[in-house]
Amino acid sequence: MKPTVQLSIIVPFLNERESLPELLRQLRQAMDEDALHRLFTEPFTYELLMVDDGSTDGSLEWLEEQQAAVAELHILSFQRNFGKTAALSAGFRFARGEYIVSIDADLQDDPFAIRELVTKLQGGYDMVSGWKQDRKDPLSKTLASRLFNSVTRRVTGIPLHDFNCGLKAYRRNVVKMLDLHGEMHRYIPVVVQWNGFRVAEQPVRHNPRRYGTTKYGISRVFPGLFDLLTVLFITRYLKRPMHFFGMLSFLSFITGFGISLYVTVEKYLFNQAAGNRPILFLGILLIILAAQFLSIGLLGEMLTRNHRSTPDYVLKRSGDIPE
Ligand code: UDP
Ligand code: MG
Predict the structure, then answer these.
(1) Is 37 exposed, middle or buried (0-12, 13-18, 19+ CB in 10 A)?
(2) Where is the Glycosyltransferase 2-like domain (predicted)?
């Protein structure tokens, strides 16, 4: 499908009733800016795709009342709370824009920064991630997110300061390729860059939360780090699990074999009893683990061949090649 508007703005929200009126006002004002319109050659059109992630505070009802007056406003809603990742993913699926921007609903992100993100996209990037350079959140959150960002930066080698900013902009083909699960919205830049797209960052203004409460406390740090492990595995090894488990198996076997050899040599050459030595059990354990890793790797390979999945590449098409 061809894009039918220039810009889609996706707003995931959960119980943000008090913020919504101001948010809607600010977003519409930002979309009315001439400076934004001048970035496009064709007449500027946009859509506001608000995704209700199971709110129970009347947010959805209030928004629905506004639809008659705001032609650009479209609403998707979940039956229950499925999480921010799911809300973004639904928004991406139905977005009709050439460029797609996500923004939080709590007024912490600045709608007027959207223009800067789009400008950067037009400079040749596929995705631009906001950077809350001066983050206005309690210290506990700021510290946790520092830790999270620096671990992610080190492990992935992607030099972003802020992986989890609500404000992000994408070219259409990027979001249509994304396959998000769990709580993976934190790692979108990682997945995007691993697929060979160019990712940039742009400092954005950040406001303290005015209404409502945060949905992501400090308890999210550990799940977040486990998600990093999953993302690393999925992006690097999903299509070749044997390379991952094979390596573990190899290391485990070599160590286990070395230990067993050592114990055996000591027994027969130096007459040392082997049966009561703790290290013997470590050796045996490692060899058994090696066999298990190898079988998991093989099972993984069988799974990747059996389930019909998307290809392992992302490509551009030029000329008239139908889907
Ligand atoms: N949000 C959501 N579903 C959830 C949790 C949060 O749609 O399960 C929305 C929330 O309404 C807000 C954005 O995601 O628009 C970011 O959440 P929040 O402000 O609580 O996170 P923080 O800024 O504190 O990290
Ligand atoms: Mg927030």
Answers:
(1) middle
(2) 8-176
Let me know whether 127 and 115 are in one domain: yes
What tokens does 167 get? 């404000």
Closest to 4 in 3D by CA, of 79, 88, 100, 82: 100
How many domains, in total, are found in the chain? Answer: 2
Q: Are residues 196 and 286 in the same domain?
A: no
DSSP state at residue 219: G
Q: 90-101, pLDDT tens digit by residue?
A: 999 999 999 999
| Minimum CA distance residue for ligand 1 atom 7 | 13
Domain end call among 187, 214, 238: 238
Report how far Cα 89 is from the mean position of its chain's Cα atoms.
10
Residue 321 lies in a domain: no
What is the model's pLDDT at position 313? Answer: 65
Are 151 and 284 within one domain? Answer: no
- The ligand whose atoms approach the alpha carbon of 91 most closely is 1
Instruction: Give the C-alpha separation, 53 to 76, whole Å.
Output: 9
**Is the CB of 16 within 6 Å of ligand 1?**
yes
Please give the Cα distance from 286 to 267 (Å, whole number): 20
Strand partners, 13: 52
Structure tokens, 172: 């259409």
Identify whether residues 146 and 268 lie together within a single domain: no
Mutate-to-test residue for ligand 1 from 55, 104, 137, 188, highest number of ligand atoms within 8 A of CB: 104
H helices present in the chain, as ranges: 20-31, 34-37, 59-66, 84-94, 114-122, 139-156, 172-177, 188-194, 221-237, 241-270, 278-306
Same domain assignment for residues 298 and 169:
no
Q: What angle do CA 198, 203, 205 make, to 5 degrees?
A: 140
Q: Whole-prediction pTM value?
A: 0.84
Q: For residue range 1-20, what is the model confidence (pLDDT) as tens digits?
A: 667 899 999 999 999 999 99
Amino acid type, 207: N
